[in-house]
Design a protein that fits this description.
alpha/beta; TIM Barrel; Lyase, Ornithine Decarboxylase, Chain A, domain 1; eight-stranded parallel barrel; 18 strands; 25% helix
Length: 350
């Protein structure tokens, strides 16, 4: 990713949703060793988890904050993203007794239509008393709605709106150290969005969004999701397995039982639709994916047996199943597939 950045530019690694299912603490510790100085999360709880693990780097809370949560932001020394003046006022009241102004980032809604101040409301907030004493505006940000879309026009318009707000602050003599708009797609497709800080998310884990149909170079998925066959059942033609007898064998069959299900993040919609890798070959999911188990037809893989590894995401031999593949089977995006991997799935780091 660094090869795509316009220097000088810092990196804020997005490790929300348990680092997109990969394990936020271990991922953040590794990124720290790679020289990444800042992290982004969605909730206070996510930030507190990193703090409890001993991570002292700046952590930006990018999601919505309720008034009763603000004391916890300060208690864990997290940096909040302020999206309205009421939140700024409430934070200022909490921070007045501190010896140093408390850092915040302000979010501008340049066209995403979610959280953020309207562009014309930013300068009044920057010039308000709360931002001239108890609070220190460390960063100004926006979020791009269509950075991976086919038409760059909307993204360019958002960047232009953001630049107008920055220019207004500059003209008023207000210096804001960090300016950031770029997500993963913008890092690769819109160099003008880099400013002096970028917020990579999905690309850190080896995936990309649409990118206007272009493949991103040097991105390789880092996660393998695997389990082990625990039992092989034999069916005669016409016999059924699983809930609602959703699968009935059309031939004498061997069915492998895998101890993973929708409670682990293997989506129930993969019932009779997904595939797993066994002995380097694809084996189809049959019947209903259960809460704790999934059934796979291994009739055509006669040497598959209990104890064999089944790969749900990853490589086995020359065969591969990616989160993109699973997303296509589900009609969704790889983000959802990765984030859904549940907490009871053990994370093993190599």
């Amino acid at each position: 990713m660094r090869r795509h950045l316009t220097a000088p530019c810092e990196i804020l690694a997005v490790v929300k949703a348990d680092a997109y299912g990969h394990g936020a603490v271990a991922v953040a510790q590794r990124l720290l060793r790679l020289g990444v100085p800042r992290f982004g999360v969605a909730t206070i709880q996510e930030g507190a988890t990193l703090r409890d693990a001993g991570i002292q780097a700046p952590i930006l809370v990018m999601g919505a904050l309720l008034p009763n949560q603000l004391p916890d932001v300060i208690a864990h020394t997290l940096t909040p993203v302020v999206h309205d003046s009421a939140t700024a006022d409430a934070l200022a009241d909490l921070a007045r007794s501190r010896p140093e102004p408390y850092p915040i980032h302000i979010k501008v809604d340049t066209g995403m239509g979610r959280l953020g101040l309207a562009p014309e409301a930013v300068l009044p907030l920057l010039q308000s008393p709360c931002c001239k004493g108890p609070l220190r505006v460390e960063g100004l940000m926006t979020h791009l709605a269509d950075a991976d879309g086919g038409d760059p026009g909307y993204t360019e318009a958002q960047i232009a709106r953001f630049r107008t707000v920055v220019a207004q602050a500059d003209a008023a003599g207000l210096s804001i150290p960090l300016l950031h708009t770029a997500n993963s797609a913008a890092i690769l497709c819109h160099p003008s969005s880099h400013f002096n800080l970028v917020r990579p998310g999905i690309m850190l884990y080896g995936y990309q969004s649409a990118l206007r149909g272009q493949a991103a170079p040097d991105l390789h998925p880092v996660l393998t999701l695997s389990t082990t066959i625990v039992q092989i059942n034999r069916l005669t033609s016409g016999e059924s397995v699983g809930y609602n007898r959703a699968y009935r064998a059309s031939r004498p069959s061997r069915i492998a039982i895998l101890p993973i299900g929708y409670a682990d993040g293997y989506n129930r919609a993969l019932s009779s639709r997904g595939h797993v890798l066994l002995k380097g070959r694809q084996a189809p999911v049959v019947g209903r994916v259960c809460m704790d188990m999934t059934l796979v037809d291994v009739t055509d893989i006669p040497d598959a047996g209990p104890g064999d590894e089944a790969v749900l995401i990853g490589r086995q031999g020359t065969a591969r199943i990616t989160a993109d593949d699973m997303a296509q089977w589900l009609g969704t995006i790889p983000y959802e597939v990765l984030c859904a991997i549940g907490p009871r799935v053990a994370r093993v780091y190599r």
